[in-house]
Amino acid sequence: MVRAGGESIIFVQVNSQTGKDLLFMEALAIPLSFVVLVWVFGGLLAAALPMAVGGFAILGSMAVLRTISLFTEVSIYALNLTVALGMALLMSISFAALMAAQVTIMRMFGLGLTVAVLMDATLVRMLLVPAFMRVLGRANWWAPKPLARLHGRLGLSETTEPPTVDPHRVGRG
Asked: In 3-state terms, what secondary structure has residue 50?
């Protein structure tokens, strides 16, 4: 019997388990969210509308990413950003609904939250964070000395080299 080992097989197994866990959690979260929405809004149609808007927002952002990926190579960063934009669109639509309220303070909250979420999703996540990370370079990964010492003691690092093990200390805690 041949057994595979190393970082590659660990990566494959972690991805596989993560995919299974996500599917399981979505299978729990979506119906549970719908039940909570029915309870809050007091009706099936009123509860189905936010779920449909959220689904269309996420599907729409994924469709745009798929269309772009037909013409160019797309990184995992773009995939994560697309999901974040879909969620931001859903949140901004929900917050924008507050602007229809008759109470002035609710309208103010609706407008403020809608603008804040859209600016965070577009300006901050798409422009400012990548720009600052590019400018700061290696300084992005700076850690205070106590935290760096703790990382050293725990064996945490960003390198792919296997940790060195002192054979005289194995099993001696």
From this structure: helix
- What are the sequence ranges of the domains in the chain? 14-44, 54-138
Q: What is the mean pLDDT of the chain?
A: 79
Closest CA to 110 of 87, 93, 122: 93
E-assigned strand segments in the chain: none
pTM above 0.85, yes or no: no
Say which amino acid occupies 26: E
Mean pLDDT of 17-40: 83
In which residue are the tokens 């160019």 written?
A: 72
Is the pLDDT at 69 greater than 80? The verdict is: no
Q: Comparing C-alpha atoms, which of 25, 88, 100 is closest to residue 54?
A: 88
Which residues, other chains included, contact 113 with Cβ-Cβ below 8 Å and sequence gap of 6+?
Answer: 91, 92, 95, 98
CA 112/CA 10 separation, integer angstroms: 45
Other CB atoms within a 10 A radius of the CB of residue 11 amount to 10
